[in-house]
Every structure is written in C-alpha cells, then in structure tokens.
Amino acid sequence: MNPTILVKQLLLEEISAECFQPFGQLITPTADDKPYDATDAQLMLHNGTPRFYIMRLYQRGRKFHKITRHRQCTQCLGSLEGKDWWMAVAPACEREQPAIDEIKVFRIPGNCFIKLELGTWHAGPYFEHDFADFYNLELSDTNEVDHFTHDFRESHNLEFEIVDRSLKPYSIFRKK
C-alpha cells in the first residue's frame, strides 16, 4: 500500500530585486553606457569552463517534488521571446534539504533574467506555454558534478503545486 502523498500549495509571487535577494539577483534592462556595479550579475564561474546555451523545455504542469542546488557556480536563466515563467527557490543552506516553509515561487517576466546564488535550491523553470526556450549560464559539467537534488516525495510523501495568486487556495495541504 502506497502512503498518501500530500500536496502543499505555493502561491506565485511577483518577483522584485528586493524579494529575490535571499536567492540571487534579478537582472533587468539598463542603459548600455551604465558602468559595472552591484546591479549587474555577480557571477561565480571560476571552478570550471562556463557553458552558455539555449535549452528548450516543454510544459510540465505546476507540480514538482524535486529541488536542486549547485554549490560550485552561480547559474543564470532567462526566457527568450518575452515569455513569462516561474521558478521555485529556497535559500542556500548546509542541510541536505531546504526548509519546506522557506520555498517560494516567483513569476519572472520575459524581459529580465535571474542569477541564482551559490547553493540556492531551485525547481523549474515552469510556465503555461507549450514550450519555452531559455538561455542558461552555468559550468560545462554542472549537471554531472554539481547537481544535488532532494526528493520531497521520498522524504516527506510531499509534492508542491504552484498556485496563481488570483486563485484562492482551499488548503495548504491536501491529499492527492
């Protein structure tokens, strides 16, 4: 007999530089002649060969149960074609899993990108489109040597569901 899987709803939040700061940076358009400063992506890519590529992802719904972190590099993600998208994040920590109550989900407009801090837990990108192309800046071997994943379905019989703020959730936890 399989145990009941609980579903925790996470309300989608609008991203801002201030609210995203515990997880990384929100990078928005600036004038071309602006000098380099702290509002530019503060990258950590010295532990290997940087890899900058376009990845095509297909719509995966609004549920997830795995969350990942990278400790050797920062990661930058942004959508192409102006498509909005969502990313679940939790602050970097020394534990083998993030605290459930620290996981947040942000809506990211298609005219900016995010830089994840070293060790930031993340799940996504998620989106409503049939597919979306994303540019991704990380190290060439990030997914082989710096990809630590926690599975909440295995550890807590738990999944997360992204819920739009305009929809009132009927329960924080519900049975699947």
| Fraction in beta strands | over 45%
Which segments are poorly predicted (pLDDT under 50) over 5 or more consecutive residues? 169-174
Helix content: under 10%
Distance between the termini: 15 Å
Topology (SSEs and partners):
Elements: E1 6-14, H1 17-20, E2 24-27, E3 50-58, E4 63-64, E5 66-69, E6 75-79, E7 82-90, E8 104-110, E9 113-116, E10 121-126, E11 131-139, H2 142-145, E12 148-151, H3 152-156, E13 158-163, E14 173-175
What does this protein look like?
The protein has helices at residues 17-20, 142-145, 152-156; strands at 6-14, 24-27, 50-58, 63-64, 66-69, 75-79, 82-90, 104-110, 113-116, 121-126, 131-139, 148-151, 158-163, 173-175. By secondary structure, it is mainly β. The protein has a single domain, classed as Jelly Rolls (Sandwich), CATH 2.60.120. Strands 1, 4, 7, 8, 10, 13 and 14 form a 7-stranded mixed sheet that branches. It has a 5-stranded antiparallel sheet with strand order 2-9-6-11-3, with no helix packed on it. The longest helix is centred in the C-terminal third of the chain and has 5 residues, at 152-156. It is globular, with a radius of gyration of 16 Å. The two termini are 15 Å apart. The relative contact order is 0.33.
In short:
The chain has 176 residues and is mainly beta. It has helices at residues 17-20, 142-145, 152-156; strands spanning 6-14, 24-27, 50-58, 63-64, 66-69, 75-79, 82-90, 104-110, 113-116, 121-126, 131-139, 148-151, 158-163, 173-175.
Core attributes:
single chain, 176 residues, mainly beta, Jelly Rolls, seven-stranded mixed beta sheet, five-stranded antiparallel beta sheet, 14 strands, globular, disordered C terminus
